[in-house]
Amino acid sequence: KQWYQRRVRGGVEAKAYNEISKAEKLKPMELELKKLEDLSEAIVNDFQYMKSREKLMRDTNESTNSRVLWFSVFSMAVLLGLALWQVFYLKRFFKAKKLIE
Predict the structure, then answer these.
(1) What is the distance between the alpha carbons of residues 12 and 34, in angstroms, rounded to a whole number?
(2) Cα–Cα distance, 84 to 78 (Å, whole number)
């Protein structure tokens, strides 16, 4: 058996800094600074993305909580209504059968 392993890189890791260094004629220190600048930019972008996702999730959570609250209030009202109807219906039924006065 032969194993083939491939590493896929994305973001800052995917940039070919050697080619950028040759094209822009950067010194090694400038190249490292360029890498750090790109890395910090990627981190800022990731934090902005996480912040927007957190806001979206919080809004979804609050909306779901509100819906669950109103559904439970509605369910309690329906159950209370059914209980009252059942009491009056049974009271009327037993009066009609003359089991109670």
Answers:
(1) 11
(2) 10
Its pTM stands at: 0.59
- Residue type at position 13: E
Q: How far apart are the first and last CA of the chain?
A: 92
CA distances from 15 to 12, 42, 77 (A): 6, 12, 62
Q: How far is CA 72 from the centre of its chain?
A: 23
pLDDT averaged per 10 residues in sequence order, the chain, 101 residues: 74 71 78 84 94 97 98 98 97 88 73
CA distances from 54 to 43, 44, 51, 59, 64 (A): 16, 15, 5, 9, 15
Amino acid at position 95, single letter: K
What is the b/e burial string over 57-79, where b = at least 16 CB atoms within 10 angstroms of the residue's CB?
eeeeeeeeeeeeeeeeeeeeeee
pLDDT at residue 2, as a whole number: 79
